């Protein structure tokens, strides 16, 4: 019998849940949700999906902001989500810079391995949603199914090409959530 993947979704943060900035998101005030993204997470929860976040946060390693600021941003996200009946089960982040040579900075898969261990699940066919190629690469290495959203850097990422085989493209997180929860596999375009 074919295994159905666990009802689990992994999201990148900046450019997927909240607006991105080339100057980093450094304070709770700069953390602004993309329209419909929090509602999308709540709708995934209502459909029985657990949602976790895996995010590169090299601004910490660069000394642009402190852990306390990151925690405050995430408090803001948790509260806004709770107001909508939504929940993120965990946030895994990499505080390092590329120069640190860590195992967790995407496109490495360390953050996703942490999620897999924490929740005791295999990530095969679990959707990973990102706006950058490295998000998708980190997931594909562990057998996740790649989903690109066109928010944040997504349009640029699509134009650059070279996406993993089978990548599905959605306008935004709301469109992804609709696609997943409806079980409607027709919309969205697959990139090659
Ligand atoms: Mg991003
Ligand atoms: Zn790291």
Explained architecture:
The protein has about 190 residues and is an alpha/beta fold. Helix content is about 35%, strand content about 15%. It is built from 7 helices and 7 strands. The chain has helices at about 35-45, 60, 65-85, 110-120, 135-140, 155-160, 175-180, and strands at about 10, 50-55, 90-95, 125-130, 145-150, 170, 190. Strands 3-2-1-4-5-6-7 form a 7-stranded mixed β-sheet. Helix 1 (about 35-45) links the parallel strand 1 (about 10) and strand 2. Helix 1 (about 35-45) runs parallel beside helix 7. The chain is globular. The model has no long low-confidence stretch (mean pLDDT about 95). The chain binds magnesium ion and zinc ion (ZN). Magnesium ion (MG) binds near residues 14 and 20. Zinc ion binds near residues 94, 96, 102, 104 and 105.
**Strands ordered across the widest β-sheet:** 3-2-1-4-5-6-7
Sheet of most strands: 7 strands, mixed
Regions with little confidence, pLDDT below 50 for 5+ residues: none
Q: Average pLDDT, to the nearest integer?
A: 94
**Tell me, what's the shape?**
globular
Overall structural class, as computed from helix and strand content, comes to: alpha/beta
Tally the helices: 7
Distance between the termini: 28 Å
The helix/strand series, from N terminus to C terminus, equals EHEHHEHEHEHEHE
Helix proportion range = 25-40%
User: Could you tell me which ligands this complex binds, including any ions or cofactors?
Assistant: magnesium ion, zinc ion
What is the number of strand segments?
A: 7
Please give the radius of gyration in angstroms. 15 Å
Strand content: 15-25%
């Amino acid at each position: 019998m074919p295994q159905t993947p666990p009802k689990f979704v992994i999201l990148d943060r900046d450019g997927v849940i909240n607006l991105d900035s080339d100057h980093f998101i450094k304070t709770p005030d700069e953390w602004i949700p993309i329209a419909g993204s929090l509602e999308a997470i709540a709708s995934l929860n209502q459909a029985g999906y657990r949602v976790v976040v895996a995010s590169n946060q090299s601004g910490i390693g660069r000394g642009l902001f402190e852990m306390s600021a990151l925690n405050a941003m995430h408090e803001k996200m948790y509260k806004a989500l709770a107001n909508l009946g939504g929940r993120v089960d965990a946030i895994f982040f990499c505080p390092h810079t590329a120069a640190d040579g860590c195992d967790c900075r995407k496109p490495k898969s360390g953050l996703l391995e942490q999620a897999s261990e924490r929740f005791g699940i295999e990530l095969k066919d679990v959707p990973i949603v990102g706006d950058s190629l490295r998000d998708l690469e980190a997931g594909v290495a562990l057998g996740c199914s790649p989903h690109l959203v066109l928010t944040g850097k997504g349009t640029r990422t699509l134009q650059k090409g070279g996406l993993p085989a089978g990548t599905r493209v959605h306008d935004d997180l709301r469109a992804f959530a609709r696609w997943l929860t409806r079980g409607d596999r027709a919309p969205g375009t697959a990139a090659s």
